[in-house]
Amino acid sequence: MTMKQNYLIKKVGSILLLVLVFACVEPIEIESQTYEDTLVVEAIITDQLEYQEVQLRRTFSLEDSGPVQERNAAVIVRSENDIYEFTETEPGQYVSIEPFQALEGRSYTVEITSKDGRTYYSESEQLPQRAELKELYAERSMYEGEDGVAILVDLEGPESTSGYYKYDYTETYKIISPFSFPADLIIRNGEFIEIPKTKEEKTCYVTQESSDILLANTSFQAGNDVDGFLVKFMNSRNFKTAYRYSILVRQYSLSSEAFSFYETLEDFSDSESLFSQNQLGLISGNIISETDSNEKVIGYFAIAGVSSKRIFFDFEDIYEPFEFSPASHVECEVEIPDMTPQALPVLGEKLDNGILKYIGFSMVSVEGGTGAKKVHRFTKAECVDCTLFGENVAPDFWEE
């Protein structure tokens, strides 16, 4: 079956360097040859009663390893007579002290004071009309010549106006270690000692947040509903779907201005060179420096209505029985190391440091057929201990 391609999928990867580009109120020209220390603001306040978040960081140059988080700032969101204070829970991550939600008909602004006393504020924003995420479903599909599973959404848009939407998701999937054994092995004074395991290592659950931006809008079509919009595609070799998979998709109803901002980011990510002055051009946001009107600020403060759904499916729900075996999250080989007295200290060190794991023994005939000997078998730790990848306790929302 071939997926519907009626709606353009817009994916933005992690935008590096200066072109993490969240721009300022007045269009600014980004210089590709010189580096400027610029504040980056990322905030979407939703209509859900929850702890809201604001992310602050600084742009970084080619020589830096990654974004520089903006520490020790004061952040508030103001709505008429209400003030919502935020506290820094992790470097650069500011979370509201109390949960709150954006309400229809009210205006909201964000105000930021950096640790050196510089102040910034946004234009006022209001909550757009929210569209409901009607269906979230998985179906086997062909995409770009590959067989796999597509995660699709249908939505009901508002009747009177075009809809502008941004999507993100959280995926959780089960992994099962290719090898397991109820005991670990240690070597002491040349003796092998089995130690019963005290934690679950065979079955784990891995949770990952989406890193792309997905955009859809209905401004160029007759109706305002969307059917078969692709959120994610995983080919049949993807180990995430090998056992059981769940995805929570969030749909953000944005203003047309906020949508245009994210759409511009997509244009940057598609450029052949993110550092070409012709490619960078001009970007508009809604954050301004109150301290210095000439200071460049990168970012957009948005208010969004959110609708979300979660689904679960097993490998057998998508693919035919015995059609092929699911992929593993790790490639493994069994090792039977040298057991000479000279080699045992090296093996013991690998076991103690968690490089190798014991997976039991087998009895093999000795040369000449005069009996059998015990052969200890090992593999790399990732093939036994699934907690190296995820949690060994199912999340509260998990359903089998």
TrEMBL record:
InterPro entries: DUF4249
Stated name of the protein: DUF4249 domain-containing protein
